[in-house]
Amino acid sequence: MKNLKFFMMSTMIGSALVLGACGNGEKEGNGNGEATEQLSGSVSGDGSSTVAPITEALVEEYALVQPDVKVTAGVSGTGGGFEKFIAGETDFSNASRPIKEEEAAKLKEAGIDYTELEVAYDGLSIVVNKENDWAKDLTVEDLKKLWIEDGTTKKWSDINPEWPDEEVVFYSPGTDSGTFDYFNEVILEDADIVKAATLSEDDNVLVQGVQGDKNAIGFFGYAYYLANKDTMSVVKIDGVEPTNETIESGDYTPLSRPLFVYVKNASVKDNEAVYDFMKFTLENAGDMAEAVGYVRSPEETYKEDLKALEGLK
After folding, report:
1. How far apart are the first and last CA of the chain?
2. In terms of domains, do 151 and 210 share one?
């Protein structure tokens, strides 16, 4: 994720967001003129690669406020993150889809209570190679025809006879990804994805694949498109391009979706560092989401989640 991290930090440099300068005293400012108690300890998380840019940005800024708290966040995909969460290996789990019933059942069986926190909105972006000057606007039905396995060799000309009679090259998030799950739900409708697709949990692999082949098409979170928009093109879906405005308004449908962090209740109660980092996340997720290319959730959502978090103490 180095390319995205460089973009993310470059975007954030010069931001008006001031979270407080780091000092060596017991207390320091938190940006609101209040003293912040200095903590130590560790916080562990894993999960969605889509949510990762927000978390990475938060971790960078949190280190300025609480330098003695070590926050780690892996990127195993939403499903992989939940597996570690269920196993009791992490304090929080990033997810680009709501938790599944079977995952919730396993957490209950393991005796792990959790709370869902919404951190931002994303517009799942369909992208093509920069040299592709034909597939500028696709319908949901076009996406189904392209991406659902039906035993045929997929060609661009299958969508429009005037388009190239060349095979489409597919790049998709892996099956542990919440982005894959969401695409599967709203586009594939649980049908099999085209067998020719290259699947990867690493979104940078998908980016490089689309960049390297004129006939490529892929999909991933909006921030990854923004980080690479000079080297690929985004496709309008039913005439609507994903932008902050269309994602926030809901006009970019059905590919707009909320992004989540699931936190273990016991970790919040027993580990002050976990509570503090989650509180910091909710207080700053909107700004960080916008800094890395996503869309902030309504302020009321953050307030409600903060109240829920405080109730776990």
Report:
1. 34
2. yes
